[in-house]
Amino acid sequence: MRVTLINGSPKSDNSASGVIINELVRLLRTQVDVNTIKAMNYIGHYDDIIRDTLVLVFPLYCDGVPSHLLRFMEQMYSHCQSCADKPAVYAVINAGFFEGIQCKPAMDIVKNWANRTGLVWSGGVGIGGGGMIADVQKVPFGKGPKKSIGKALDELARHIAEGNSMPAKYVNHNFPRFLYRWLAHHGWKSQAKKNGTTLGKAY
User: Fold this and answer.
1) What is the Cα–Cα distance from 100 to 93, expressed in whole angstroms?
2) Residue 131 carries which DSSP code?
3) 3-state secondary structure 42-97
4) How far apart are CA 203 and CA 189, in angstroms?
5) Residues 166, 111: contact at Cβ < 8 Å?
6) Which ranges in 82-176 belong to alpha helices (H)?
7) Are 66 and 109 in contact (CB under 8 A)?
């Protein structure tokens, strides 16, 4: 059994999706063969991964799927029409919003795509506060503010390795919401000042 983890982030490095994939690789590599690819610049053959268990890992974009990942999914749809093997599909979505439940519309999009494509929808994890994930990389998953996220990813990895489906789960950081919001606003204001502009009072 081989699992292909598909990085749907447009960032070249230091993305929350990349950090999540590294953790899934750590959790899965002793149980299954693990392959990782970037959807943004994928130039391989879809036939190479069409028989693998697929895990889409991506950031939430306007309650949906990033456009470059959507193109990747469209290509997968075309290739899967003539494929006898129908692999399982999971999704891990991270949102800038504090609440993981904000990922539900995008999770439903992936579910509908999988069903339309003829793949086996197998669930996933929606993570709130995605902006923190890359910023606190020194904190292990399952500890401190990443306690709930680590537990959810561990559960996901277990289901992937066993080939079982799971209900979509939505989790938040173990961190005060008001403080997360304050830090986010402070970061935006700092970036605006650095780039020679300011934000209105509404922010």
Assistant:
1) 9
2) H
3) CCCCHHHCCCCEEEEEEECECCECCHHHHHHHHHHHHHHCCCCCCCEEEEEEECCC
4) 8
5) no
6) 104-117, 130-133, 147-162
7) no
- CB within 8 Å of 187: residues ≥ 6 apart: 131
Rg of the chain over Cα atoms, rounded to whole angstroms, equals 17
Return d(Cα 42, Cα 37) in angstroms, integer: 7
What pLDDT shows up at residue 113?
A: 92
Positions of the chain with pLDDT under 70: 12, 44, 82, 134-140, 142-143, 175-195, 198-203
User: For residues 140 and 196, what is the distance between their CA atoms, to the nearest angstrom?
Assistant: 36
> Cα 113 vs. chain centroid, distance in angstroms?
16
Rounded to whole angstroms, how far apart are CA atoms 27 and 183? 30
pLDDT at residue 95 in the model:
85
| Cα 98 from Cα 147, distance rounded (Å) | 15
92, β-bridge pairs: 57, 125
Burial class from Cβ neighbours inside 10 Å (0-12, 13-18, 19+) for residue 194 reads exposed
Question: Which pLDDT score, from 0 to 100, does residue 170 have?
Answer: 95
Q: In this predicted structure, what is the pLDDT of residue 193?
A: 66
